[in-house]
Amino acid sequence: MNRRNILWSTVSALGAAFAASRVNAATEAPPSNKLKVVYHLSDADKVNFVLGNIQNHIDGVGGPDHVTLALVIHGPALKAFHSAQANPDISGRVSNFAKDGVELAACGNTMKAQNITLTDLLPGFVSAEKGGVVRLAELQSQGYLYLRP
To answer: Which pTM was predicted?
Structure first.
């Protein structure tokens, strides 16, 4: 009789532990199935093309809530985003991307080389202090897919 009680207690304890783990799993946030994508832009002649790709990406997945996007800019392409020089189309796109939650990262090394600060860029940019290529690698290590159109 004593063995039966021990066995019953063990089975009951295991059942309770399993039930508790299911309750915890049900109350935790479900894992995100959103893709994370980082676009790399350094060529000045590809600015409009890349911005168009990002907009097509947002539209293609059903809106910004369905994807996590980042844009890392360095080199000559950064000049297109200087607030004093940016054309209205680029300004409007950047503004919309910032509202949609797209991370807009400007290479800190390029900013130093071009003698500009974040305040010289269109609103919404953050500085990739360690450099654009370092930020690209960081994002890739966080599971972002890398695109360089």
So the answer is: 0.78
